[in-house]
Here is the input.
Amino acid sequence: MKLEQTGIEGVWVAESVAHQDSRGAFSRLFCSREQQDIIGSRSIVQINHSITRRVGALRGLHYQNAPHAEMKIVRCLSGRVFDVAVDLRKGSATFQKWTSLELTPNNRRALVIPEGCAHGFQVLEPDSELLYLHTAFYASEAEGAVRFDDPMIGVKWPLAPTDLSDRDLHHPLLERNFEGIVV
Here is the structure.
């Protein structure tokens, strides 16, 4: 597995190496030993799967507050998505900055998103499927979110956002005095 740090501390790209032969291919999607420097003492406690049908559909930007803050590892199983992580951590050198990565089954990449960073994605091919590995259980009372088009963040989505949930359309914008979240 190849690991590459992005421009945001704690946000990593994990790329699986495929072993191919005449039968097809095999690749490791997660290895706590190989990712020890990133994962640390965390454990994967929940694995989720999503399917998003329409091109342009957008989900996010979501996170969980402490004490249920989570690291997540996001990988595309089919289709193609523009995946985004936004740093919302109080005191971070990259506070309110974002990074993105195109995820496809063929590029075998995953985005590792630490606690205190929001996550969202936009579908670039129909019927895109994502696999999420989480280090904390989902807790509805700990949900946090920022609107996908928040001007203080300025994510440049590749397509005009469509097919947003009512919930995602009405997430709050960051206030000027927003100092970040503590994890």
Summary: Residues 6 and 12 are 6 Å apart (CA to CA). The chain has one domain: 2-17+28-169. The mean pLDDT is 95. Residues 2-17+28-169 form a domain with the Jelly Rolls fold (CATH 2.60.120.10).
